[in-house]
Automatic annotation (TrEMBL):
The lineage of its organism: Bacteria, Pseudomonadati, Pseudomonadota, Gammaproteobacteria, Vibrionales. Coiled coil: none annotated. Catalyzes the dehydration of D-mannonate. Pfam families: UxuA. The gene is uxuA_1. This is Mannonate dehydratase. Keywords: Iron, Lyase, Manganese. Transmembrane segments: none annotated. It catalyses: D-mannonate = 2-dehydro-3-deoxy-D-gluconate + H2O. Pathway: Carbohydrate metabolism; pentose and glucuronate interconversion. It comes from Vibrio aerogenes CECT 7868.
């Protein structure tokens, strides 16, 4: 197991690489060029600059999250081939710099959805929260306006240039089905996986968050059956999964069973916990198994049984000790650091 930590870049993250260096066992930084619009080719000079900065601090750059997929590719528009060619070239440039895994998603419009960024909890911390009834009774534009007022940083999947075209994008998805999305994903994979095989860079698709349809938009990477279908679209070891326990945990998925079944195709793992409620709501919790609906101990135990040697990172944490005043939603320092130590504690106990 190779431990990593997601970082949003110099000048774009209140957490420094020196802070991360003080968390035991972290070997790599999960990074991206977060200001790059979906569909544009990443400049080699910028990739190399980020590589030098991260490696100087003592970390590897093996994992990139994300190289965003342009909406025209998901929609299957005639313009998709241009954006797919750009995507291929970015992959080649990342491979040239030494990147091993790219995490991406194929979710229409939104990369993730919550209704509240700082929901107060009983212990005084706060966390990302999803209220299902609010999603069912709110216009997505209204939700965007509400969430945007609560934060002054850009968030992956909620970039200003994407949100500016939201009404137009929803119009394009009218009548669009899950089968349409499956076919467009297959087309995308058939184009890029040969490039991945040639330059030795593995793709890991992130499950949909949450793992069920919202706003009438299809969601397809949501359960064991669909993950199996996805992996068979292009049956190559380079076509794999970035397994996220929190995304899959938003529904009643048996995550250890998914790991047992597909472990050889899991290139990257996000470990976090969420507490699900009977009404469909869920909230981020600490990484402890007893605090949420995901048996994180069983997840780690299953990975250990398979001698998992891929990349892992702690995912969304609570905001604790007042860090909501400065932390990026879901991406503070303290609870993610605690999460790493919890993961290592379980892993080390199993190893002994």
């Amino acid at each position: 197991m190779k431990m990593t930590f997601r970082w949003y870049g110099e000048g774009n993250d209140q957490i420094s690489l020196q802070h991360i260096r003080q968390i035991p066992g972290v070997e790599g930084i999960v990074w991206s060029l977060h200001d790059m619009p979906a569909g544009e080719v990443w400049e080699q000079s910028r990739i190399n600059r980020e590589k030098a900065l991260i490696e100087k601090a003592g970390f590897h750059i093996d994992v990139v999250e994300s190289v965003n997929v342009h909406e025209d590719i998901k929609l299957g528009l005639p313009t998709r081939d241009k954006y797919i060619e750009n995507y291929k070239e970015t992959l080649r440039r990342l491979a040239k710099a030494g990147v091993k895994v790219v995490c991406y998603n194929f979710m229409p419009v939104f990369d993730w959805t919550r209704t509240e960024l700082y929901k107060q909890t009983e212990d005084g911390s706060n966390a990302l929260f999803f209220e299902k009834s609010q999603i069912e009774n709110i216009d997505p534009i209204t939700l965007i306006d509400k969430i945007s007022k609560d934060v002054d940083v850009t968030m992956p999947g909620w970039e200003p240039e994407r949100l500016a075209k939201l009404k137009e994008t929803f119009k394009q998805y009218e009548g669009f089905t899950a089968e349409d999305l499956w076919q467009n994903l297959k087309y995308f994979l058939e184009q890029i996986i040969p490039v991945c095989e040639a330059c030795d860079i593995k793709m890991g698709i992130h499950p949909d968050d949450p793992a069920f349809p919202i706003f009438g938009l299809p969601r397809i990477i949501i359960n064991k059956e669909n993950i199996g279908r996805f992996l068979n679209l292009v049956d190559s070891p380079y076509n794999g999964l970035s397994l996220c326990t929190g995304s899959l945990g938003s529904s009643a998925n048996d995550i250890p069973d998914i790991i047992h079944t597909y472990c050889s195709r899991i290139h990257f793992i996000h470990i976090r916990n969420v507490k699900r409620y009977e009404n469909g709501d869920f909230i981020e919790t600490s990484h402890r198994a007893c605090d949420g609906s995901v048996d994180t101990v069983k997840v780690i135990e299953t990975l250990h049984q398979h001698d998992y040697s891929g990349y892992v990172r702690p995912d969304h944490g609570r905001h604790i000790w007042g860090e909501e005043a400065w932390a990026r939603p879901g991406y503070g320092l303290y609870d993610r650091a605690l999460g790493i130590m919890y993961i290592w504690g379980v892993w080390d106990s199993l190893s002994r």
